[in-house]
Amino acid sequence: MEYKKLSHSDVINILPHRDNNAHKGNFGRIMLLCGSRGYTGAAALAAMGALRSGAGLVYLCVPENIYEIEATKLLEPIVLPLPDEKGMLSSKAIKQISNIIFQMDAVLIGPGLGQSEGTTAVTSWVLQNYSGPVVLDADGINVMKEHKDILRGRTSPTILTPHTGEFCRLGGLPSTDKAGETLRIARDLGAIVVHKGHNTVISDGGQVYINTTGNPGMAVGGCGDILAGMIVGLIGQGISPIEAAACGVWLHGTAGDICAQELGQYAMLPSDMLQVLPRLLK
Question: pLDDT for 53-87, tens place per residue?
């Protein structure tokens, strides 16, 4: 099989043209269902990843328990409180989600979400009722490991961004053929799979991209949250989900490489990568 690899020029050419008469609504309305008590940073980093990748409007929907933290910390995202239980989203949040989700161009579920009956109910409802692209990351993946039938039943794009442990929970097997195994799981679930790690593999069950950017300095909490935000932000701007995933991974890894070169792998932080991203999107 032929594997695709992106370059900087490829990524720039994929990004949509911006018309002089455009407004913020033209660049994607994105909903993020993220965060829980103790995991406020994941939600904030995902929201900023979406904005730094060019999204026009980012609605960060979080458990009411952490709303004030997120609203104080963040200036650009629209932060909305949702009903919670023990610091995580409650199934009661579905009513409020249903009032705005159908106006959205793409949805991200997962960073810092936590695992509970409530988060499972919310994730399942979105996957079964929202007809736009959905990115599942972290606990958005974990709460679906026993509900793969819902993933297989979707007719709209689903993008899964598992690290190796989460990949195995989806049915993936440890293999020296990472690309082949990622392709198999993508076909099985009817989803786009971003199998993270060294030489991240992205597949929609047909095409396979292999990414060669990135370094061990990115092995720190928060990096994956930024990537998930970037991918959903790119999808919301009208880029095809498979290209958005591949571009997001390339940009994310290259930003990490610049940080490693300038700051060193030991000291670099995910927030440093957010500051570097604008250099790559000129």
Answer: 999 999 999 999 999 999 999 999 999 999 999 99
Could you tell me the residue range of the domain that residue 44 belongs to? 28-280
Token pair of 22, please?
Answer: 């455009």
Q: Classify residue 267 as exposed, middle or buried by CB count within 10 Å of its CB (0-12, 13-18, 19+).
A: exposed
pTM for this prediction: 0.98
Q: Cα separation of 282 and 269, whole Å? A: 22
5 belongs to a structural domain: no
**Beta carbons within 10 angstroms of residue 68's beta carbon:** 12
The helix/strand/coil state of 282 is coil
β-partners of residue 202 are 194, 209
Phi then psi dihedrals of residue 158, to 5 deg: -120, 130
Q: How many CA atoms lie less than 13 Å away from 225 in the CB half-sphere?
A: 26
Q: Are 228 and 108 in contact (CB under 8 A)?
A: yes
Say if 13 falls within a structural domain.
no
Query: d(Cα 230, Cα 236) in Å, to the nearest integer?
Result: 10
* CA-to-CA dists, residue 64 to 10, 54, 77, 262, angstroms: 41, 27, 16, 38
The count of domains in the chain is: 1
CA distances from 214 to 96, 254, 260 (A): 38, 6, 9
Mean pLDDT of 173-188: 95
Residues composing the chain: 282
CATH code for position 190: 3.40.1190.20
Q: Whose structure tokens read 């082949």?
A: 180
How far is Cα of residue 216 from the mean position of the Cα atoms in its chain? Answer: 20
* Any domain includes 10: no
Question: How many CB atoms are closer than 10 A to CB 162?
Answer: 25
Q: Is residue 235 part of a domain?
A: yes
Q: Are 253 and 231 in contact (CB under 8 A)?
A: no
